[in-house]
Each structure stands twice: as C-alpha cells, then as structure tokens.
Amino acid sequence: MGNMKRTGLAFACALLAVTFAAVAGARIDQGKPLTGSVTADGSSTVGPYTTAAAEGFGKRNPGARVTVGVSGTGGGFERFCRNETDLSNASRPMKDSEAIKCRDAGVKWLAFTVANDGLSVVVNKSNTWATCLTVAELKKVWEPGSKVDNWSQVRDGFPNVPLKLFGAGTDSGTFDYFTEAINGKARASRSDYLATEDDNVVVTGVQGERGALGYFGFSYYEENKDKLKVLGIDGGKGGGCVTPSIATVQANKYKPLSRPLFIYAKRDSFRRPVVAGFFGYIFNNEKAIAKQAGFIALTDRQLKKARYTYRVALKANSK
What we know:
The protein is of the alpha/beta class. The protein folds into 2 domains: 8-116 and 259-317, D-Maltodextrin-Binding Protein, domain 2 (3-Layer(aba) Sandwich), CATH 3.40.190; 118-250, 3-Layer(aba) Sandwich (D-Maltodextrin-Binding Protein, domain 2), CATH 3.40.190. It contains 14 helices and 12 strands. The strands form 2 sheets. Strands 1, 2, 3, 4, 6, 7, 8, 9 and 12 form a 9-stranded mixed sheet that branches. It has a 3-stranded mixed sheet with strand order 5-10-11. Helix 1 (8-14) crosses helix 4 (96-104), helix 3 (73-81) runs parallel beside helix 4 and helix 12 packs antiparallel against helix 14 (300-317). It is elongated, with a radius of gyration of 20 Å.
C-alpha cells in the first residue's frame, strides 16, 4: 500500500507505542478541567477519530479546543515536521524520509496507535456467485479508466449480470484508503460510479440492485448485515480468502483492507497539560471513540502498550 517502508530510524520511532512490555491498563485520571488549544492535521481517514475524541474532550474540558485538519498523512507530516502542528494523524507509520525531516528540524515525537480500520466490500443478498474477490479483480473493476460493467467481465464463470458500483465520495478518507489499497495510489479510481458521503445511500443502492458492488467501513456493515452480503478478500501472498470481522481486522489478517491508525505528538507539545490530557482522554474512552467514529477498537494488548507509552512520556515530562 504505497511506500510504507518501515526501516531504520522511522521503524524504531514509529512503533514506539508498541515496543514496550504490556502492563495493566488502569484508567488514566485527568484531574481538574484543562484549558488551551491543540492543533492536529493529517490523514483524512484518521480525522474522524480525532474529531470524535476532540468533541468528547471538549465537553469534559470547556476551556480546551482541538482543531483537526485533513491535509492527508503526507501533508500532515510535512506540517508537523515544520513545527506547525501539535499532532499528526496518520494512516501509516512515518517514513524514513519524513523522520529525517523532523529530526533535522529538531522535532522529536511520540507515536500512539489509537484504533484499527477495516473496509467491507458488499454485494446484494441475491448474489449467489461471488463469495470472495481477489485484489486483482477489485482493481480490474475500480482502477482509473476501467470499462468493466458486467459480472462476467470480473471472472470467467460469473453470470451475465450488469455491474452497478457504489462507493465513497472523493472527499472521504474511505475513498483515499480504498483506492490506495486496491489501485496502488490514493484517489486513483474510475469515476463512473455512484459516489456518496452517506453510507445509507450505499446500503440502499446495493440492497436494491442484484448486480451491485459497494464498499464502506466495517462498523457500518455490522449495522446492516441483515440487508447485505459481505465478500471475503484474497490479498494474495498465501493468505487465502478472509472475511472482515473484529478478530481478522484486529489481527491484521484482513489484508489489504485493514490497518492500525496512529496519532503522532510532538514531545514539546506533549509537555503541555492540555495535549497530554487529550491522550489521557483517548485512552480512557478508546472503545467508545472508535465506535462513534466507525473504527475497530484496539486490542487489549495494543491498548496496554499505548497506555504504557503514555505513562512513560508523562514520567519523562516530570523530570
């Protein structure tokens, strides 16, 4: 999925949140209400998670404000390494080249894993011929310039049934995620499909068309599983066909449509109580935030490690 090389400096740093031994996950108490502003930018996929967390944090702390931009993971890291933001939302770990830019600018940082993400590929309930598609087949359907408009063109043996496509609008982080995972480049997609920011439209469209194919977040499929049929995905590399579930997404077996999501924090910013308190709020309410934003919560092990990293950072601030 893009250039996601995790070696050297970036590998060591980006996975800081998951390199410590797991410890008991007790609640992180905030104390008195906090005040101040926090700026975040980056991934349009992670943006809804940070926004949901910011809303809850703001209700708990009326004098605090978290603003969230969505310039993309790469654009977010550029601003972050120029010292323009406190937090950087990322749908992938920081690259070596980005880590070097931060280092050269004197920006030190922490990386927290905050949620897991998965997309579901769905068809009409009356679709009896498709149970699993390969990434190559999905690319054949969705790549820019594709003229595939019948199921018989997707795979030999599939019936002569018109193919009707439904998917995320171009302003959606889901669009960026799906196109990068399937077509190899974010935002690279055929345009002749029903694009919408409203997942209800996808549900209604797929439910009403025998030959429909659509995609959206896993949590939304869970809410509508009685109306739709979900397909397994064969990501290649011997993994076989895997259907999305909390277990397969959390175990990162549902590839390439599942992945962990990150929020990076500048160490200088983390020294401010409002920034540290924001992460404390996240780790106290992680499951509820993930559900509200349509993501899959961290595993117990992931959450313990993230909390451990949080406490280590707090301890470093107190010295």
